[in-house]
């Protein structure tokens, strides 16, 4: 054997040995992950760079960088960021495939990147591409769970995906048959509960991220908002120094009509410049101030959001809420000018944006009394809302839709006050007069009746009203209401 050939052979083996990639969630990678998932992205990026220097062959920094891109794109939706950062997902998937397939992290990391890519694609209007990436992620993590059943991080991803697939509305059923994805709410929730209650080292590392998914599932799918709020408190989730958890807690508190709690979380979060800047906070502050009819504060927050947000999600909804503020103040000129923006800006992917667009197209303004009552009820200020409607009946309103809205709104207020009998009576009347209406009130009334009967332990009646909700056609918020009703049926069927 010649010396030259021996030298070439030695170099080849040295390069091969050096090029062997690993998945090492080292101490530095763990620190980076905690910083990034708290939305302290700059500090996290510095630690990622440090981890690369410590071990150039470690592939975990790839997935950590993917988290950074994901949070920036998901929350801020800036098209220039999209152009610059979106190609990174495909590049990282290529790099991750260089790792050892014998590691549970091989398919786990690829799943996470595919999921992040899918979520970003939805935000930027690429639903078809998102569907395919969701399918890839679902298939990969399902196979990874079979191959590595003891690897608990599988549960954190597979659990929510099972739930999502199990609650796809009828309007999107073609996705499940096309992509071959079969979900299960019961199995998905069980996996998530196993994960967040585990003392496993990896479960502790991913606890905050898992809690983010778990709280949303329990709130929206399992319909247990109070349990979620207790979980946040009892598990001592850091809603001060972790902005991802602070956002989650704020968002859920707003949707739970706990306006003062939501405002407190926002005002008491760590305001350091270390955290990712996002206009989302202005949007949420707009909701909390509007819900107490503090219209001038809401105007300031909404206008700040619209001036700085580069994306499209909830833009129409925010413009509508802003137009309401001006309308309530009696500034019809500003209200109409803002309504024009509803027709031109944002998109119609979310139900809230679709509804805002439809309302703007109608050219009609809502009854002022009903609007104020709705806003106060949405904020949890039910005594004030009820006082506004005191002495009124459905016949006091001019149009069939206003009469329907009045009946539904009275039901919601009584419902939130725990007066079940009064709520059921008002809801039943709303269904009677609005079952064929394109407004959402009758369908939502049926959903709420199902929830009340579920709470009372009457599963059969609960299921019948969830089914009634689904049976109503061609109304606003059809997809989201069907999803909630489907989840209600599954809960009461043990599915």
Task: Explain the layout of strands and helices.
Elements: H1 3-18, H2 27-36, H3 41-54, H4 60-76, H5 79-96, H6 104-123, H7 127-147, H8 153-166, H9 173-179, H10 185-196, H11 201-205, H12 207-221, H13 225-234, H14 243-255, H15 259-268, H16 280-290, H17 295-308, H18 315-329, H19 332-344, H20 351-362, H21 368-378, H22 382-389, H23 400-416, H24 420-434, H25 441-455, H26 459-471, H27 478-493
Helix pairs in contact: 2-3, 2-4, 3-4, 4-5, 4-6, 5-6, 6-7, 7-8, 8-10, 8-12, 10-12, 12-13, 12-14, 14-15, 14-16, 15-16, 16-17, 17-18, 18-19, 18-20, 19-20, 21-22, 21-23, 22-23, 23-24, 23-25, 24-25, 25-26, 25-27, 26-27
Signal peptide: 1-19
TPR repeats: 404-437, 443-476
Keywords: Signal, TPR repeat
Tell me what the structure shows.
This protein has 495 residues and is an all-alpha fold. Among the domains are: 11-151; 279-365, Alpha Horseshoe (Serine Threonine Protein Phosphatase 5, Tetratricopeptide repeat); 390-495, Serine Threonine Protein Phosphatase 5, Tetratricopeptide repeat (Alpha Horseshoe). 73% of the residues lie in helices and 0% in strands. It contains 27 helices and no strands. Helix 4 packs parallel to helix 6 (104-123), helix 15 runs antiparallel to helix 16 (280-290) and helix 25 (441-455) packs antiparallel against helix 26. The model is unreliable at 5-18 (pLDDT under 50). Pfam families: TPR_8 (PF13181). This is Tetratricopeptide repeat protein. TPR repeats lie at residues 404-437, 443-476.
């Amino acid at each position: 054997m010649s010396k030259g050939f021996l030298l070439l052979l030695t170099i080849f083996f040295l390069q091969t040995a050096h090029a062997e990639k690993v998945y090492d969630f080292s101490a530095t990678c763990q620190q980076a992950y905690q910083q990034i998932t708290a939305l302290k992205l700059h500090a996290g990026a510095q630690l990622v760079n440090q981890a690369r220097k410590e071990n150039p062959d470690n592939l975990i920094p790839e997935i950590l960088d993917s988290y950074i891109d994901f949070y920036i794109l998901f929350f801020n939706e800036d098209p220039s960021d999209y152009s610059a950062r979106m190609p990174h997902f495909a590049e990282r998937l290529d790099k991750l495939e260089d790792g050892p397939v014998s590691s549970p992290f091989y398919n786990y990391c690829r799943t996470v990147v595919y999921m992040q890519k899918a979520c970003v694609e939805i935000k930027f209007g690429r639903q078809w591409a998102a569907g395919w990436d969701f399918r890839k992620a679902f298939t990969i993590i399902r196979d990874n769970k079979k191959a590595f059943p003891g690897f608990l991080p599988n549960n954190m991803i597979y659990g929510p995906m099972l739930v999502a697939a199990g609650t796809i509305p009828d309007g999107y059923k073609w996705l499940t048959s096309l992509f071959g994805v079969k979900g299960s709410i019961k199995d998905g929730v069980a996996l998530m509960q196993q994960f967040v209650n585990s003392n496993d080292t990896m479960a502790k590392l991913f606890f905050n991220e898992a809690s983010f998914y778990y709280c949303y599932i329990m709130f929206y799918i399992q319909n247990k908002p109070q349990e979620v709020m207790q979980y946040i408190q009892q598990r001592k989730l850091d809603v001060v120094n972790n902005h991802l958890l602070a956002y989650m807690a704020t968002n859920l508190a707003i949707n739970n009509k706990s306006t003062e709690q939501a405002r407190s979380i926002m005002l008491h979060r760590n305001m350091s410049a270390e955290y990712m800047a996002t206009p989302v906070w202005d949007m949420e502050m707009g909701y909390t101030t509007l819900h107490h009819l503090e219209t001038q504060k809401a105007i300031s927050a909404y206008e700040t959001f619209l001036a700085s947000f580069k994306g499209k999600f909830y833009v129409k909804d925010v413009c509508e809420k802003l137009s309401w503020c001006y309308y309530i103040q009696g500034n019809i000129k500003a209200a109409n000018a803002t309504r024009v923006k509803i027709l031109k800006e944002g998109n119609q992917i979310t139900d809230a944006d679709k509804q805002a667009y439809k309302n703007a197209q109608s050219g009609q303004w809502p009854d002022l009394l009903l609007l104020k009552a709705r806003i106060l009820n949405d904020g949890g200020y039910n005594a004030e809302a009820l006082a506004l409607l005191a002495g009124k009946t459905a016949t006091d309103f001019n149009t069939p839709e206003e009469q329907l809205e009045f009946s539904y709104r009275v039901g919601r207020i009584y419902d939130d006050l725990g007066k079940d009998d009064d709520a059921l009576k008002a809801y039943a009347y709303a269904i009677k007069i609005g079952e064929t209406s394109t407004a959402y009130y009758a369908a939502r009334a049926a959903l709420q009746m199902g929830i009340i009967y579920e709470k009372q332990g009457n599963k059969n009646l609960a299921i019948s009203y969830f089914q009634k909700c689904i049976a109503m056609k061609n109304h606003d918020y059809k997809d989201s209401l069907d999803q909630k009703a489907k989840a209600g049926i599954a809960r009461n069927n043990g599915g």
